[in-house]
Each structure stands twice: as structure tokens, then as C-alpha cells.
Amino acid sequence: MINIAIDGPSGAGKSTLSRKAAIALGYLYIDTGALYRAVGLAAVRAGIAIDETEKIAALADKTTVSLAIESDGQHVFLNGEDVTSLIRTENASRYASAVSAVPEIRALLLQTQRRLAEENNVIMDGRDIGTVVLPNAQVKIFLTASAEARARRRYDEQIARGEPVVFETVLADIIERDHRDSTRAIAPLKQSDDAILVDTTEIDFDQSLELLLNTIRERI
After folding, report:
1. Residue 212 in contact with residue 17, Cβ under 8 Å?
2. CA R_g for the chain
3. What is the crossing angle of helices 103-119 and 32-45, to 10°?
4. For the whole model, what pTM was predicted?
5. For residue range 36-58, what is the model confidence (pLDDT) as tens digits?
6. Considering only CA atoms, which of 73, 103, 108 is closest in space to residue 88?
């Protein structure tokens, strides 16, 4: 099986670009961030604060997260409930970063991710796919853009959805999450030594997709 690992910071467009690339290549797309968002949703529902890591860790014993590939794409299930649409809020995104730093939660989800990669040609995106989850992936890419560019894209998306947001707040959240993801003790965000850097700061979505696809095709 061919495994393509795509890592990068929050707001870099990993999910959307990886999904489109997987369709173009005929691969299975695995959004690992969705798994952590689902656990984040469980923490929100349980009334657990974002910094209460011990309580988040305790969730692992009573949380089941799974993926199903259906006709309209990947669906995420939390304890049997389809939460695909519920995990795309900004709050779930914030919790996902905290959740992903908890060893018990990472252990809960790691085997699910690796099993899917063993059984399918996949494009898998996240924070530590090339460094931890799929260290032997045939292609590793670190997809990034400046914090300002990522914040602007996220801001525009939220405005388009009718959400009342302030750009400076979005930028601050991006910078905070970058710091949290890159300094956490367990599987921090970093570019692996054998990953190709793809920077989309100065290009639009279509150009970014073309660059990503060309980078992958050159190596498979």
C-alpha cells in the first residue's frame, strides 16, 4: 500500500487539500484531526475544561471513536453517534489541540489510524503523521503557510458561515495553537527530516492543490 503523510500547523488547509488530492489520485483520505475533534466534543459535552488533562485522559476509558467511508466521504462516530458535522466548530478545533497532547487519547486513536493505512492507499493528514503515526510513509509533506495567511483564510471561512469573529482573535488563536502543538511533550508538531516543505502563503487554493499533487506525483 502507498501511504502519503501530510503534516502541518492549524489552518494550513491540510484537510481540504488532502481530501481533494485523494480524490484526484483515487486514494482513501483519512482526516486524523477529526478523530481528536470528536474526543474534544466529548470533553465539551462532559463539561471538562480545556486544561483539565487528567479528566480528558479519563475519557479514553469510556470513549469510542471510529471512521466510516461513505458515498459522501469520511464520517466520524463518537460512541456510535455520527458527529461529522458537529466537530467543525471553532470550539471543537481548540479542544482538539489539547486532546491530542494527552497520551491516553493518542494511544486510543493510533491503532485505528495505522490499521487504515495498512489496508488502503491513503493520504493521511495531521500533526505527527510522518514522524509518529506513519514513519515509513512513501511520501511525507509538511504543508504550511504564514500565521497571518492561515488566520485570514480561517477568518474568511467563518465570516462566510455567518459567524461573528474578529480577525485579531483568530490570529491569536492560531499563534497559541502553533505554540501548544509544537511544544507539547507527546508527538509535537514538527517537520520530519525526510518531508518536503510545501508553503502556500502566496498562492491560492487551486495553485496549492496543483503544487501538492505535483509534489506527490513526482515521488510515487
Report:
1. yes
2. 16
3. 140
4. 0.79
5. 899 999 999 999 998 898 898 89
6. 73
